Structure formats: structure tokens, C-alpha cells
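User: Could you check the structure of this?
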Amino acid sequence: MKKEDTAEKINIGNPFPLDVLPKKVREIIDEANVTLGFSKDYLAMSMLTAMSAAIGYTHKVEYNTCWQEYCILFVALVGRPGANKSHPLSFAMQLLIDFDAEQSAIFNEAMKRYEAAMELPPKERAANGYDTNPTEPRRIRFTMQDVTPEAVHRILSENPRGLCLYADELAAWFKNFNRYNNGSESEFWMSVFNHKVAMSDRKSSQSGVFIANPFLCVIGTIQPKVLGELAAGNRNANGFMERFLFVVPDDQSKVKWNSERKTPSFDIVAAWREIISKLTDIVPATDTNGNIIPENVLFASEAFDRLVKWQNEYTDKCNADESDTQTAIASKLEIYAVRFCLLLAVADWATGAKKKKAIDTATVERSIRLTEYFRVTAAKVQCIIGEDGLTDVQLAVMSELPDKFTTAEGVAIASKNGMPERTFKRFLREKRGVFFSRDSHGTYTKF
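Assistant: Sure, the predicted C-alpha cells are below.
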């Protein structure tokens, strides 16, 4: 097994569960796939992320009174060069960018008026059509791209509803982590993922920034060979990597141009705009201080029971498997399962449901299927990252191991390639959850 073949070999047998999405969203995805050559996997998750950003801090779901979740997603579209990752992402995000452009124009005019008012003495402002004590305008937006840590805090404080960091190349984002503040940047993003208080007391800021309820999604593209850099430092050990949802399509072939110059059979941009606009048009309730009060979407009792049953079953598997990697992945995917329940429920409303109903069992089942897709892709990514550190002997053993094998079969293959039995068993134990899963005592599956 050559190292450069790894990404291609693991992209087998894990199609994105498109049927969990609302019908109107599926129709857009199918049409864009047929006529524009967009990967269904990339477009589906890009659209879900755009919807999450549009929902922002306006809705929440309670697992219990001490645990609330929001639609915060960290998404990486993984693919070879030429796999057409950027175009589906751009399509999904463009309407939010258009909204931001409109708001930027409004902000610029408001800022001109504010500056003109501030140049006048207070007594002369009213006579010239200005407020006596004008408030400095703030720029409303849903997206941000190449920003410094200080700018992230400032922009987020000005947009309490929430934002999405849209990084076409994720590598450019995480390579800047140590550029400004010696590595604390990844800790900031992990805190944001958990919806924890965000504070900034930088010397460059005249006053500290305090954000009680930060909402930030992240989405971008990345090539398999760069995944190791995303996991560099301690980011594959401190929970940073596990916070990402990795979209890894089975088919990553370079897309051929459409010689028939087909056009969509319906206006997919208008259809997408109708969905996104319903979400961006949400006007959340606020308290007397103007702070957003998110709407709580509830679980139906039987739906909640199904979610608990699923979590308990996989927890038993993690405990039996004794894989730190799989347990770490499972811990974050449990959070995402709850978030997916909220996202899919609000997405159903945005695509035609008359009202936001309680999260029912069907929605939980859809969320579970979506979560299980990402369990497989997380294992694929760990395989790509881990394979870079394998020795030639380990690579040879991995290449010859069948998809299903017993310990005895593995020992025989290892011995043939010069790896002692004790060394193979240690390798099997240490790489469980990265390259292997234990199906039962003495029986394994190779990822």
C-alpha cells in the first residue's frame, strides 16, 4: 500500500445520506449534480452549513436544563485536487455573501451620516437633520473570511446572532493559528464550538470584548495530503480534530465538462434563495437589554428515548473496544447528533412545514443516520493522518491484511513481513480506532 494511494483506497462505500434532507433541498442538490457536476456530498453539507449560519443563535434545543445545543457546525470538505470542492461550497454560501454585500452598502451610508453628525457640535446636529447623540452603526453580516483573531472577536461582538467563517482553503485558516498569539487560537475555536463565553483583552483593543453566547460555524475545503497539518501540534490530541465533520465523497474523480451544456430544469438559485431567506428573515425575541432569546425546539418524549438508546448502544461499543480515538470521536458526534436534530427540524420548517414542531422520532432517526456518516469519515481521516507515520513493514502488513481478519490471521501475515507477533499485537492495540475496529474478541475489521 503506497502512501499516496491511501485517500483513494478508503473512499469506498459510505454515500452521504441525502434522504435525511428536506425534499426541496434534495431537489436542488440532484439538479445541480446532473447539470453542474456538483458533488452531492459537498453540496449537501455546504447547504446545511449555510442554513446553520442563517439560523444562528435564534434557536436552541435542550437535552436537559443544563445542556443546550445550537446549530454550530465545523465542516471540512475533503477531496483530491480537481475534485470540484469549491464550486458547491460557493453556490451554497453565495446568498449569505449577497446579503452581506447589501448590508455593507447600508453600513457605509450609515457610517458617512454618523461621521458627518459627529463633526458638528451637538447643538447643531438636530438642525441639520441628525440625531443629537448618534449611535455608531454596526455592520450586520453572516460571513467572514480572512480575519485576524482580534477581528473575529470584534465582528462577533457586533453580530450576536452568529457568523460563519467561510475559508475556501482551510489550510490558510489554521496555518495562521500561531501567527498572532502563540497557539491559543485553536483553544478559542474549541471554546466557540462549545458555545462558551468568548473574551478578548488584547493590548491592541481599547476595551475588552465579552461575548456571552458566541455562535460561529466554520466551513472550508482541504486536500487529503494537508490533513496532517490540520492535526499538527496537539490538535489531534486536544479534541480540535474531533470537532470537525469531514465530508469525504466516495467518488473524487475530476468532473468532465458537460458537452450538452445542460441547464437546470428549474431555477435552483431562486429555490435556494427562498429557503435561505426564510431563515435570514427570522426575527428573534429579545430581552429588555436587546439580547437575543433563542426559541427552544423541544424533543417529543419517544424521540428523546430513541436518541438516548442510540447513545447508550454506541457507548457500550466504545467501552468494549477500548479505543481512545473512537471514544473521542463518539463524544463529539453525540453533540452533533443533538445539533442535527435541531437543524433538520428548523430546515423542515424553512422548506414548507407550517410550523416548527417538536423533534419527533423520524427526525432523530435522520439525525442518527447523518451522524453515522460522519463517524465513518472521521475514521477515514484518522486513517489518512495515521498512515503518514507508518514504517515500511507496517505498510506491508496493512496492505496484506484483508478487510476482515482474526488475530491469528494477522499474526501470520505480520510474521511473513518480518513483524514479530508481540509487535503486531501492540500495533493492533495502539491503532484500534485508527486503522481497525474490533468486531468481537479476536475478530477485526480494517478501515
